[in-house]
Recover the amino acids of this structure.
């Protein structure tokens, strides 16, 4: 039975194929940000404070509309002033309401490390990420082979970017190579769109020692962050809880948590 993840992958392959007919790899070299030195998210995540990667997204398959009128520049500047470790920018249009233009606008607005959150299936998207100002790319192990993850990691790092590989199971963790910069445990099963923070609790013990790792999705409180820190995570990626919060101090409270992790 076809899942939402299968549908997204099918559509993404079509989008990439169409994009490759309009632009060549060599064209990316002319983009303003292609030659820019990237900022390190990994370095931010090993600082004394527990690292928060704050996300920008308008909607999602699991939550529906989150913030249809999201101002990328204003929200990005707010995140930076709140001392987040990084900013995650969704660029998928159909399912998340994002765009490459969002990434470009965000890059012009902040110096904080930016993660391009996208369903990367082709090396073309890695060059595209660099050209539009990303510092970090996301590789989803559920939709890639171990060989593809290694290949894409080598390309991204050769362009100066860092790589997060996202996993939701022990099997997907086994696809990761030693060169990956950051491991992300996604608490959301992308096939059925069910979220359970227990996934991070269960999978942390399989992460190699001295590896920078983050927990992603479904995190709603400081207490959960304290627990993740105690387990050994360096940070967490949070989107909906921040974007939906009416507490103006919510994000600053999250970024003030001291880390107990020593690498």
């Amino acid at each position: 039975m076809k899942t939402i993840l299968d549908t997204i992958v099918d559509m993404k392959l079509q989008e990439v194929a169409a994009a490759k007919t309009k632009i060549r790899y060599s064209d990316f070299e002319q983009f303003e940000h292609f030659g820019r030195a990237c900022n390190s998210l990994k370095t931010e995540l090993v600082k004394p404070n527990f690292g928060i990667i704050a996300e920008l997204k308008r909607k999602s398959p699991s939550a529906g509309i989150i913030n249809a009128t999201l101002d990328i520049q204003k929200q990005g500047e707010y995140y930076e002033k709140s001392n987040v470790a990084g900013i995650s920018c969704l660029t998928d249009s159909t399912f998340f309401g994002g765009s490459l233009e969002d990434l470009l606008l965000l890059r012009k607005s902040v110096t904080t490390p930016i993660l391009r959150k996208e369903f990367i299936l082709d090396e073309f998207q890695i060059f595209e990420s660099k050209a539009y100002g990303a510092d970090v790319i996301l590789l989803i192990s559920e939709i890639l082979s171990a060989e593809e993850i290694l290949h894409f990691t080598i390309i991204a790092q050769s362009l100066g970017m860092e790589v997060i590989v996202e996993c939701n199971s022990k099997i997907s963790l086994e696809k990761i190579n030693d060169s990956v910069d950051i491991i992300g445990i996604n608490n959301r099963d992308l096939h059925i769109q069910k979220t359970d923070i227990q996934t991070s609790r269960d999978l942390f013990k399989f992460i190699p020692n001295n590896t920078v790792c983050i927990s992603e999705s479904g995190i709603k409180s400081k207490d959960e962050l304290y627990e993740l820190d105690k387990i050994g995570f360096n940070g967490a990626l949070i989107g909906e809880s921040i974007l939906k919060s009416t507490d103006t101090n919510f994000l600053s409270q999250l970024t003030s948590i001291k880390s107990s992790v020593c690498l």
Observations:
- The mean pLDDT is 95.
- The two ends are 43 Å apart (CA to CA).
- Residues 4-20 form the longest helix (17 residues).
- The CA atoms of residues 18 and 114 lie 25 Å apart.
